[in-house]
């Protein structure tokens, strides 16, 4: 619960220090980490389900000649502890890898520059290669082994958060990792992972400020529904009074729909209908595996309970089915290596990627430290109509998946976050996440209703 | 997955670590530089994906490169690198010895062989170098007069050589004026055709030739066959041997000719037999000797015996019968002794002595002429004794003289016949 003394969007950088990685040099043995909290005029970092490592940057304004006197030589660790309006405190360790935009102040008695930083795991990732085979293991087990061996180094980075959450994958495999960086190797395995539970098998590997995660889009929806934070878009709410302070913290500062439909991309990607052609050279087999989203839509977990099946029957027939299959994916299967599941992975994943991002919005909220990329958030958005009603907009309201979240802490320590959200193009039943069992009939009903 | 990789192939170079494809389809396990580590602990050979060969010769029965070979290929699935295909091998010159405990080496220390270090992968026979380390050095090593000297005179790059890891060699040599074909087994058996078309077949082990149907051999020049061991030739049907010139058979041991049927020997000229001793026996039937002209039996130092064990001896001549000998002549019979002539009978001797215990009957049809002096007839008993004294002892028990008839059975000149199949037509003769 927020304290009354905190302003809306409050954020306090309690600790922000730079320290040398190599402390063995004689002149550095007694050198303490230098605090730069007062030098930070602007701090931002981004986490995304499409990004495997946390990255950020901060604008420094200082008059101590830190660059040359400390000095900053590209080996510095950046430790930060910050607290939000709700008193959620986060401590993190980053590696500073770049100095840019160095410019003097107006009186030439101070200077501006930007320090860019990444998680220490990213530094480990860049400096290591995985060339190893894993025999008769699930992809989950392989990812755990790679993560533990290559991305954790408690000796060098004792303050790093090495927590990871990995969703189960099905089928054991034997794979030789072909000389990839650890994160690339994990992404390689993520791409090839199959889930019998979450049929889209649309796995993501990403790092949030909380931990690393490797999970499917569908599992994110299932896990995030229960504790989804709820936000309302009401421009009438003002943050300038104490009484409206809490309400402002759950009110969207801005709302922008960045995408709604893209039929050309839908056709080109093969999201609606596609064909996975398996070529088995060893057994001289050439197998066509046609896939239709229409036939499989009920197998997926969606953000909203009720979804609209895309396009009219006539349009589908004329532009997706009549002239053949627009998208074909050729894969080579190794008949001697089981559980490759290419057909079960590729086509559903492509469909899932498109239809789960068919509707994307960008919203800005006051920042907080307890929402992360991959979480579910619930939005309440009224209809944008001349005649105002108290009903929420059917397609915009409901559950959304946080694809990315960019945090910005300004010089006056106001924390704002920009969220990129996505969801199915839903009709707007926001009562909960759908299940396979009760969605089948609803999809059919909705489709016929829509066609009618 | 390969949906993008096929259009963005990942090329590789690597070393063959395993060619023992369980499917026997020519696939290889290849450790690829910059893709796989050299640690067999991190990536054991058996976890490497099988690379499918792309056979440019369009021959499915291609020869997979042996372990340790450097190869070139690509991954069908691009950067994912799980579906390799191999295009071919790259020759080089090994300058290190294999270490099978490390990656990029053969599983066993076979390639390169110790002798091959600092030698190009191209075969010595193809290069025409260090020939003393090749099979050519062992060819003709026995100095056998029959085996020709090796016609090897290869010059790079004319000799196309395939040598297997165990040492079998196949050469197709196009070296000008030294063109050859050589197929050689590691044990030394080889077939070689030299530049003049001379062909040598040498078998260091046993040799077997089987022709399921008819066979023909035509040798337009002279031929020579030397068999240093025992030789058996069996013709399971008829056999015809035609010699347009002279045929000479030299047998340093015995010569045994066993014939189940008849023996028909025809000669357009003389039929001559010569041996230290000759014995001919017709053990069931007659011995017939026919000539158009004379029959001459001549014994240089011994006797001539004609013996009929149970039958008689007869001699017929259309003209004279002459018996001449330098010693005595004896006719001895247990039966009657008859001399009959359609014409005169002349007995001429220094003295003619007729001795009989019976009467001497003279029954001329006409007149008896006695040119000498007739003496008084005396009683036979008194006269005969005096005559015997004049002639010496009778010799009735001395015939035949110095001759023992060999009545041993047929086995004396052939294998012992089966008692139940004593006839010479029987098998085993």
Give the key terms:
heterodimer, A: 452 residues, alpha+beta, Thrombin, subunit H, 3 domains, 13-stranded mixed β-sheet, three-stranded mixed β-sheet, 11 helices, globular, disordered C terminus, B: 429 residues, mainly beta, five-stranded mixed beta barrel, five-stranded antiparallel β-sheet, 2 helices, 10 strands, 12% strand, rod-shaped
Number of strands of chain B: 10
Task: Tell me the fraction of residues in β-strands of chain A, as a range.
Answer: 35-45%
Distance between the termini of chain A: 49 Å
Strand order of the largest sheet of chain B: 1-2-3-5-4
Low-confidence stretches of chain B: 382-429
What is the count of structural domains of chain A? 3
Helical content band of chain B: under 10%
Major sheet characteristics of chain B: 5 strands, mixed, barrel
Q: Greatest chain-chain interface?
A: A-B, 24 and 29 residues
Total beta strands of chain A: 21
Q: Which structural class is indicated by helix and strand composition of chain A?
A: alpha+beta
In angstroms, what is the radius of gyration of chain A? 25 Å
Element-level helix/strand string of chain B: EEEEEHEEEEEH
Strand composition percent of chain B: 5-15%
């Amino acid at each position: 619960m927020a304290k009354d003394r905190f302003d809306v969007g409050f954020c306090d950088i309690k600790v922000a220090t730079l320290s040398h990685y190599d402390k063995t040099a004689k002149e550095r043995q007694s050198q303490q980490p230098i605090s730069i909290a007062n030098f930070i005029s602007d701090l931002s970092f981004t986490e995304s389900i499409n990004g495997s490592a946390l990255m950020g940057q901060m604008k420094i304004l200082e008059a101590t000649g830190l660059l040359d006197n400390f000095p900053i030589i590209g080996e510095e660790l950046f430790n930060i502890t910050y607290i939000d309006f709700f008193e959620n405190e986060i401590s993190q360790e980053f590696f500073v890898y770049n100095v840019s935009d160095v410019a003097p102040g107006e009186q030439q008695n101070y200077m501006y520059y930007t320090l860019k930083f990444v998680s220490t795991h990213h530094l480990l990732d860049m400096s290591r290669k995985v060339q190893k085979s894993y025999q008769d293991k699930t992809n989950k087990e392989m990812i755990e082994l790679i993560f533990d061996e290559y991305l954790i180094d408690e000796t060098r980075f004792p303050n790093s958060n090495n927590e990871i959450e990995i969703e189960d994958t099905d089928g054991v495999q034997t794979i030789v990792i072909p000389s990839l960086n650890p994160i690339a190797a994990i992404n390689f395995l993520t791409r090839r992972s199959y889930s019998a539970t979450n049929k889209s098998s649309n796995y993501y590997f990403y790092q949030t400020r909380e931990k690393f995660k490797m999970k499917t889009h569908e599992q994110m929806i299932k896990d995030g529904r229960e504790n989804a934070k709820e936000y309302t878009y009401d421009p009438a709410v003002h943050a300038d009074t104490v009484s409206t302070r809490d309400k402002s913290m759950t009110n969207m500062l801005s709302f922008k729909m960045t995408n709604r439909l893209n039929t050309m991309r839908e056709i080109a990607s093969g999201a609606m209908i596609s064909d996975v052609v398996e070529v088995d050279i060893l057994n001289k087999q050439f197998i066509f595996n046609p896939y239709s989203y229409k036939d499989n839509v009920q197998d997926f977990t969606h953000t909203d309970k009720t979804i609209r099946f895309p396009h009219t029957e006539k349009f589908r027939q004329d532009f997706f089915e009549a002239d053949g299959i627009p998208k074909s994916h050729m894969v080579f299967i190794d008949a001697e290596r089981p559980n490759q599941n290419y057909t079960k992975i590729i086509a559903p994943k492509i469909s899932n990627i498109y239809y789960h991002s068919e509707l994307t919005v960008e919203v800005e909220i006051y920042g907080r430290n307890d929402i992360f990329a991959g979480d579910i958030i619930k939005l309440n958005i009224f209809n944008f109509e001349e005649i105002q009603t108290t009903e929420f907009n059917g397609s915009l309201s409901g559950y959304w998946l946080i694809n990315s979240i960019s945090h910005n802490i300004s010089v006056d320590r106001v924390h704002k976050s920009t969220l990129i959200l996505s969801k199915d193009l839903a009709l707007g039943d926001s009562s909960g996440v759908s299940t396979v069992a009760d969605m089948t009939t609803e999809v059919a009903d909705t489709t016929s209703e829509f066609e009618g | 997955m390969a949906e993008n990789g096929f259009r963005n192939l990942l090329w590789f170079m690597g070393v063959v670590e395993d060619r023992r494809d369980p499917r026997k389809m020519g696939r290889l396990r290849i450790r690829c530089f910059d893709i796989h580590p050299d640690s067999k602990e991190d990536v054991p050979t058996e976890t490497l994906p099988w690379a499918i060969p792309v056979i440019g010769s369009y021959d499915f029965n291609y020869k997979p490169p042996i372990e340790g070979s450097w190869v070139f290929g690509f991954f069908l699935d691009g950067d994912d690198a799980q579906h390799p295909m191999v295009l071919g091998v790259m020759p080089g010159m090994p300058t290190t010895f294999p270490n099978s405990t490390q990656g990029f080496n053969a599983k066993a220390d076979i390639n390169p062989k110790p002798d091959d270090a600092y030698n190009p992968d191209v075969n010595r026979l193809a290069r025409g170098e260090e020939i003393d380390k090749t099979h050519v050095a062992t060819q003709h090593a026995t100095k056998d007069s029959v085996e020709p000297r090796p016609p090897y005179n290869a010059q790079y790059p004319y000799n196309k050589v395939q040598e297997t890891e165990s040492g079998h060699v196949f050469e197709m040599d196009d070296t000008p004026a030294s063109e050859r074909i050589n197929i050689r087994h590691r044990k030394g058996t080889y077939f070689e055709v030299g530049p003049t078309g001379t062909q040598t077949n040498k078998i260091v082990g046993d040799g077997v030739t089987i022709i399921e149907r008819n066979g023909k051999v035509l040798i337009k020049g002279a031929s020579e066959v030397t068999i240093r061991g025992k030789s058996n030739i069996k013709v399971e049907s008829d056999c015809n041997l035609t010699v347009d010139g002279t045929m000479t058979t030299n047998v340093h041991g015995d010569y045994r000719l066993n014939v189940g049927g008849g023996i028909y020997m025809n000669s357009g000229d003389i039929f001559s037999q010569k041996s230290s001793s000759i014995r001919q026996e017709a053990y069931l039937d007659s011995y017939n000797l026919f000539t158009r002209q004379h029959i001459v039996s001549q014994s240089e130092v011994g006797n001539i015996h004609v013996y009929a064990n149970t039958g008689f001896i007869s001699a017929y001549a259309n003209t004279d019968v002459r018996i001449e000998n330098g010693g005595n002549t004896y006719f001895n019979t247990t039966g009657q002794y008859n001399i009959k002539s359609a014409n005169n009978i002349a007995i001429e001797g220094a003295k003619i002595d007729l001795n009989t215990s019976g009467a001497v009957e003279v029954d001329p049809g006409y007149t008896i002429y006695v040119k000498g002096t007739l003496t008084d007839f005396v009683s036979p008993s008194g006269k005969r004794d005096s005559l015997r004294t004049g002639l010496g002892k009778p010799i009735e028990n001395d015939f035949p003289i110095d001759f023992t008839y060999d009545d041993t059975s047929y086995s004396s000149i052939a294998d012992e016949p089966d008692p139940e199949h004593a006839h010479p037509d029987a098998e085993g003769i």
